[in-house]
Amino acid sequence: MNFCSQCGHKVSLRIPAGDNRERHVCDHCGSIHYQNPRIVAGCLPVHGHQVLLCKRAIEPRYGLWTLPAGFMENGESTEEAALRETLEEARAEVVLRKLYTVSSILHVNQVQMIYLADLPEAHFGSSEETLETRLFSEDEIPWDELAFPTIRNALRFFFADRAETSPSFPLRHLALSPGHEELLLES
Amino acid sequence: MNFCSQCGHKVSLRIPAGDNRERHVCDHCGSIHYQNPRIVAGCLPVHGHQVLLCKRAIEPRYGLWTLPAGFMENGESTEEAALRETLEEARAEVVLRKLYTVSSILHVNQVQMIYLADLPEAHFGSSEETLETRLFSEDEIPWDELAFPTIRNALRFFFADRAETSPSFPLRHLALSPGHEELLLES
Ligand SMILES: [Zn+2]
Ligand SMILES: [Zn+2]
């Protein structure tokens, strides 16, 4: 950030009065421009014994497999964001079951929220963001071709939790930082 | 937003190619300025049969009671944000028990995440943001002087869940919009 989005003057990076962190401050109009983490919402769609993955048609991680997920927009709930992204990226209509993973990804300032979801009909497709969408059983998961550690974690949790005698799919809570992207903070 | 924070030129509000929502776009440098919901993280601190509330020393809702919570910062996890806000606002050191409420507050573009937390020692205090901090038993809660519907919901859930024979404090998931700020979407 170089310029004030309110008045167009140059901003400077300093600690405002009463604060304890550096912010982009405009000395012309007094605006303080806070920067905060963004939410990525998505789904882990389950159809019978299979899960639905999308092959990315966009960077980063073009060509790798992921769960349908994307940035939450203003004016929607986390659930609505998860449903919208699943429809947009995988052309799939799912029913949310529960919030399943919450991952703070420190180095990119994102909080990823993945819902466990049921895909009642095996209807899905590709999109501008997705080269291909398909169902995978556990032994077909392309573990070496997954786009993000958060996706790998979510899938690992899912198959481990599903193997329980009475699966309850407890909320999985993670904090990920560079070099510690796998199961750093499990609760 | 009136000006591009990258180059300082005027931005216009329009739908970029490949998008389906209006964004602030800079025709000079090509930047697209997305705006997304912010996360508010906080705690519901429990000490014995009492809970800890803070009387706000800041607007909005000056003088009303709330749970310690505030905007999550870049570079921290949701847990770290909840702990930091509790320390800053209530001068209290808590131990997080579990993520308890997740509320999408549609009209202010916020997602509030409240952790159930244990306050081992009855040590707490006021701060720049807090006129007074004190413990309340259930029959002392100032229901008519609470700052936000999300706080009222969290406290209602807590006392209802605590009254169960084997309290499990399940995750409470809400979406709130104007006029529908109480328990709109419960799961
Ligand atoms: Zn300015
Ligand atoms: Zn620009």
From TrEMBL, chains A, B:
GO molecular function: hydrolase activity
Keywords: Hydrolase, Magnesium
Transmembrane helix listed as a keyword: no
Family annotation (SUPFAM superfamilies): Nudix
Domain Nudix hydrolase: 36-159
Claim: Hydrolase is one of the keywords in the record: yes
CDD domains recorded: NUDIX_Hydrolase (cd04511)
Essential cofactor(s): Mg(2+)
The protein, known as: NUDIX hydrolase
Organism of origin: Marinobacterium alkalitolerans
